[in-house]
Design goal:
Blueprint (H helix, E strand, L loop, with lengths): L29 E5 L6 E5 L7 H20 L3 H24 L21 E2 L1 H14 L2 H18 L4 H4 L9 E2 L2 E2 L7 H5 L5 H9 L1 H10 L7 H22 L6 E2 H10 L4 H6 L17 H9 L9
Antiparallel strand pairs: 1-2, 3-6, 4-5
The chain binds iron/sulfur cluster.
């Protein structure tokens, strides 16, 4: 079935549900302003979502892009284009921010893969962009091999809490010889991830005692926070734009589970999602609510597990 035919519709605002603080169009965080002279529309945040002003600007810009792209092309292609645009923006922003880090502070280098052994959060458009990339670039036999590997990984990890997923036994299914095999379309979160201490990353992943102590502490590793904040802002803008302006389910998904669905599940999933249904529910992950890496921006927006988008 062709996944590219379904259409997402901008919200009419007539379905108003139960959440408080909604405007007449049913929006909680966003408003759409029309310039009376030019007729151009602009999406704005009704109130700040983040403490830092630049993050609110970035979130509003991402929501504007989401509105502009899906209004013109409310299809799977449009969602893929939007995700690609967000990914490119995230990489540009991260590069600019990383350039401001104190010299040599950020330890991440090509071939360093310690952060690729854990559950990874994605939004549905990111998952669609990854699936599109794989389906359009890989020969059939290689695509089938990747789909099998993803499904096997999903079978092993589907009911695992994220703490258990953080293990050298559970590399991301897209990790190949220490490198990301989907680098061009890697998730937004992967683009923001960084560390100030590669040795610390290695020890807490590979030394069982250090790993247990790290997980018990509930404290993340030492990172240069600006790229991570940029990821939160872009992801939030994307989630808000599609959930409030198009009534799409933008609660984050677990990468492996989402790719298992898209590569091995029925071909109608993207269509159903664009019609406002929730076909990705099985990819919500075992305990996303407990993993700040998966759910933090969403929770801040009221898109946390178990809540209406
Ligand atoms: S998608 Fe790529 S960068 Fe992200 S965890 Fe997987 S292998 Fe690592």
């Amino acid at each position: 079935m062709n996944q590219r035919n379904s259409k997402a519709r901008p919200s009419s605002g007539k379905k108003g549900r139960r959440l408080a603080h909604k405007d007449v169009a049913g929006r909680v965080h966003l408003a759409v302003h029309r310039d009376p002279a030019s007729g151009n529309e602009r999406v704005v945040l009704r109130s700040p979502v983040f403490r830092e002003a630049w993050q609110n600007d970035v979130a509003a810009a991402a929501a504007n892009t989401a509105y502009a792209v899906l209004r013109v092309d409310p299809s799977v292609d449009g969602a893929v284009e939007l995700a690609r645009s967000a990914m490119a923006a995230m990489s540009r922003l991260a590069a600019g921010l990383l350039a401001r880090a104190p010299g040599g502070a950020v330890a991440c280098r090509a071939g360093c893969d310690h952060c690729c052994y854990q559950a990874v959060g994605v939004t549905p458009p990111e998952a669609l962009a990854i699936a599109d990339h794989l389906k359009t670039t890989l020969p059939d036999a290689e695509l089938a091999r990747v789909a099998r590997r993803v499904s096997e990984h999903h079978e092993r990890t589907r009911d695992m809490p994220s703490a258990e997923r953080f293990s050298p036994d559970h590399p991301c299914p897209f990790l190949a010889s220490g490198r990301c095999s989907i680098y061009d379309v890697r998730p937004l979160s992967c683009r923001g991830m960084n560390s100030l201490d590669a040795g610390e990353c290695a020890t807490r992943l590979r030394d069982p005692e250090a790993r247990a102590a790290f997980l018990a502490s509930g404290v993340g590793g030492r990172s240069f926070m600006e790229p991570i904040r940029a990821f939160h802002a872009i992801s939030a803008g994307l989630q808000l734009g599609l959930s409030e302006l198009f009534r799409l389910d933008m609660r984050p998904l677990e990468l492996t589970a989402a790719m298992h669905l898209l590569l091995s599940g029925p071909g109608s999933l993207a269509d159903a999602w664009l019609r406002g249904q929730r076909p990705f529910e099985p990819a919500r992950g075992a305990d996303q609510g407990k993993d700040p890496g998966l759910g933090e921006p969403s929770a801040a927006l009221g898109l946390a597990p178990g809540r209406d988008p």
